[in-house]
């Protein structure tokens, strides 16, 4: 057989193998080098994001301190002409809140299962020159909420501010609570918020503006005797809004705001008989004014009275037994002893 390089085949093959291996190593080094550089750049990018995030934390903290001293009239947004929905508007805090929004030039959609009370609220609003749209709606039924929301859009337009206010309380110890009562409290105080938000948030997302307000309670931030179901439902409402706020932020929705209102006992009849040794029950008109101001200033969490913000922060630092002693000292331990509530299951 003819051979081009007799006797040198193995040497030639070895040479080509050597060149191939050398080139392969060089290629591997090149790929490894660029991979390391990309990894370094990626790490630098992540580091930059982290540093920027912490700088933003400091900036917004300072901004919050500065804005605290700025008068409301200078930092409040104009809400005149907005269409506001208030649930539980037939009496109590819901009625007061609707009236306060009307005073700011808003038109108000009124939802309540108490038709008579709701119509009375509507008449009060019209006397102030505001447009009022009363509807009988059971917010615990999702289909009823979605149907009413569609009718509101047809009759009044797009709702830009939603106030989830309806709520109920049983005022019994956990062993005295019936299962039906517990489920009802959660239906009104928590699940209804889901249905209302799901009904009106899509239009807010489409317009890229809106405001969602939840009326929770100080009982949504700390426990109280004979309010296990109520506290749990209000904690859940706070958690819902906390998560929703972050969800909207993650989606880049800077123009859709959330506000959680946590008031002390209010003189609406809901907590008749409930008292403490130090703190007085609140006037619904005062609380309503705070709600509207909080919306105008885009506040996220509002405790009423405001000094409860300090007590709330203190709770995080206090040992459990110290917190219980504070309950004893303020009369919180016995606050529900003389509770009578009201016969109606409608709240605020």
Major β-sheet profile: 7 strands, parallel
Strand content is: 5-15%
The mean pLDDT is 86
Give the helix/strand class. Answer: alpha/beta
Terminal-residue CA separation: 106 Å
Compute the gyration radius: what is it?
30 Å
Number of helices: 10
* Total beta strands: 7
Order of helices and strands: HHEHEHEHEHEHEHEHH
> Shape, please?
globular
Any idea how many domains? 1
Helix content: 40-55%
CATH architecture: 3-Layer(aba) Sandwich
What is the CATH C level class, in words? Alpha Beta
CATH superfamily: NAD(P)-binding Rossmann-like Domain
Under CATH, the topology is which? Rossmann fold
Subcellular location: Membrane
Organism: Araneus ventricosus
Transmembrane segments: 51-70
Family: Belongs to the short-chain dehydrogenases/reductases (SDR) family.
Give a brief rundown of this model.
The chain has 348 residues and is an alpha/beta fold. Mean pLDDT is 86; it is low at 344-348.
Reconstruct the topology from this structure.
Elements (H helix, E strand, L loop, with lengths): L8 H60 L3 H4 L7 E5 L4 H12 L3 E6 L2 H13 L4 E5 L5 H14 L5 E4 L14 H29 L2 E6 L12 H23 L5 E8 L20 H13 L4 E4 L3 H10 L2 H11 L18
Parallel strand pairs: 1-2, 1-4, 2-3, 4-5, 5-6, 6-7
